[in-house]
Amino acid sequence: MKLVYLALIAFLITSCGSDKKQFEFAGGSFKMALDNTPSTFIARDVNDVYSFELLSQVMEGLVSFNAEDLSLQPQIAEKWTISGDGSVLTFTIRDGIYFHDNPVFASMEDRKLTVEDVLFTFEKACKPNSDGNPSTAYLFLLADQVKGAVDYYKGNAKSISGIKIKNKQLEITLINPDQTYINKLANLSASIVSKKVVEADKETDVVGTGPFYFTKPADNESYTLLKNQDYYMVDQKGNALPYLDSVVFYVQTRKLEQLEMFETGKTVLISGLPTSRITEMLEGRISDFNAQPPLKELYNNPLLTTQYYFFNMNDPRFKDVRVRQAFNYAIDRKRLADNVLRNQYYEYGIYGITPPINSVFKGYDFSEIKKYGYDLNVELARKLLAEAGYPGGKGFGSVDLRLDITDLNTAVAEELADQIYQTLGINVNIDGSNFEQRNEDGNMGKGDMFRTAWVADYSSPETFLGNFYGKLVPKEKDLPSSGNQSRYVNPLFDKYFEQARSSDQKRRLELFTKAEIELMKDPPIIPLWYANDFTLSYSKVRNLKNNPMEFLDLRRVYIKEWTKEEYLKSIQ
User: Fold this and answer.
1) For residue 59, which of 247, 192, 186 has the smallest C-alpha distance?
2) Residue 293, preceding bond cis, omega within 30 degrees?
3) What pTM value is reported for the model?
4) C-alpha span between 262 and 277 (Å, rounded)
């Protein structure tokens, strides 16, 4: 066995809750707005960024990402080993972790997390949900990856042969070697749950081991998380984590309303500015940023996020690759970026599904992928549509574009509907709803085209390409397809994708590149742009770390106004 031991980072040591010191500036509340209501509060089913942002403060997995550099760090597992070929992972479960309090537990000892809870978590994720559909965790972490997972899911085995426990250790055996599989276990859908809570049918109480615990909301307009007084981690000086007393998430779909909440101090952070107010905020209020100390701070980093539309591949019109290529060539992405996005983007969508961030995806051949990407070509778009039997759009009919309503999504849709009509002569009907309905319609294929975005679960092209893996598509059209909403099936893409997952890092990137090229030659999507949203926060919010995954670690965040003397000393 090749030891891949990561001893707990120096400033993350454990201690009993009652013995921990309190940080000098502990207290206060971190408040921000979510663009939409979380679609689920069951961690293993999370497949959207809004559920992720909230539940990542409540639930924890075996490992987690460091918010500064996205490196892996121990969490519920205090250490791990990976076999030399990458096929067997062994985790040692930490002592002294307690689930959040719940009436199910008879005592403090009853709340203690055990290795049996960890095993149960994977078994629960590997069973059909109450609606008969697979969980997100099964689709992306277990099926076709862990030995025995498929047999257990189908009811052909009493246990998952590739997952075993012994004393305080959990061992996972993969079907094919995969040195990067451990990164997937930092995904929120791999969060550990309490066997007692789930078997008591109390899982909707949202009981985890994280730094904040969930409180039942009075409505769907805000969610309050409170400090977990029994959290097991402390900082480098022995102070209890987290520092904050609470975290509040408001649900507000309109960016202008979010901005007003931020400017009046109701929230302390806003991610993504209203396009109509960017110039005013960034140029008209220079003093807010240049004062010493500044009132506000601006973050502007490339994100591992791709904004795109996908086609319903069950629509007979879109089975013809020439039609999908024509739609791609009909889009003037530069005009979209300049007229609508107002510089809130990293790059136009002229590559593939994976954001072209070389500093993160080192060694990935974006230059080759770009050769198969799409940019405006009116003549070719019309030629392809005519070859498909729809000259000038005649006989094609209209297209129903499903989207979740926000100011930006609507503005983008109106711009693209105009471009498609002007170039192809095809009417695009914009059909808006809330996020939950749009996501459900996407799962069920109720629409012709859909607006969506994908935020990376880990720093690999696999997290983007996995959304088009053909084996995630159910055979019956009336069943939901949450893992591959476009219902895209391409045997050559699947071949490269599968080979990549079982190869070493260099070969893996080569094969993922081939898979992405195949995806773009036969596109089920229209890549629009790669995100680079502006984020504003008040400077009094200390220790806030930003990263390309927008992973928010609030354990060491605290609220404290700067004095001029303190600020000048900090920048020397």
Assistant:
1) 192
2) yes
3) 0.86
4) 13
DSSP sequence for 428-489: EEEEEE-HHHHHHHHHHT-SSEEEEEEE-SSSSTHHHHGGG-GGGS-SSTTS--SSSTT---
pLDDT at res. 73: 95
* Distance of alpha carbon 404 from alpha carbon 402, whole angstroms: 7
Is 49 in contact with 268 (CB distance < 8 Å)? no
Closest-CA residue to 410 (of 393, 427, 434)? 434
Kindly tell me the sign of the dihedral angle through the C-alpha atoms of 480, 484, 490, 496. Answer: negative
Count CB neighbours of 399 within 10 A.
22
3-state secondary structure of 372: coil
Q: Regarding beta strands 246-251 and 449-455, do their DSSP bridges make them parallel or antiparallel, or are they unpaired?
A: unpaired
Q: How far is CA 59 from the centre of its chain?
A: 15
Bridge-based pairing of strands 246-251 and 29-34 is: parallel
What Cα–Cα distance (Å) separates residue 321 from each residue in 342, 388, 430?
32, 9, 23
Q: What is the distance between the alpha carbons of residues 343 and 524, in angstroms, rounded to a whole number?
A: 26
pLDDT for residue 284: 66
| pLDDT number for residue 220 | 81
pLDDT grade for 19, boundaries at 50, 70 and 90: low
Report whether 454 contacts 462 (CB < 8 A).
no
Bridge partners (DSSP) listed for residue 251: 34
- 3 state SS of 256: helix
What are the C-alpha distances in Å from 23 to residues 18, 253, 413? 14, 35, 48
pLDDT in tens, 239-290: 999 999 999 999 999 989 999 999 999 999 998 878 777 777 766 678 788 8
- The yes-or-no verdict on residue 476 having pLDDT over 80 is yes
Neighbouring CB atoms inside 10 A of 250's CB total: 16
Report the alpha-carbon distance of residue 555 to residue 209 in Å, rounded. 13
Cα separation values, 555 from 42, 209, 458, Å: 22, 13, 20
Write the CB contacts of 18 (distance below 8 Å, at least 6 apart in sequence): none
CA dist 352 and 360 (Å) reads 16
- C-beta atoms surrounding 25 within 10 Å: 12
| Pair 449, 352: CB distance under 8 Å | no
Burial class (CB in 10 A: 0-12, 13-18, 19+), 36: buried
Helix or strand (DSSP H, E) at 570? helix 564-570
421: Cβ–Cβ under 8 A, 6 or more apart, which residues? 427, 428
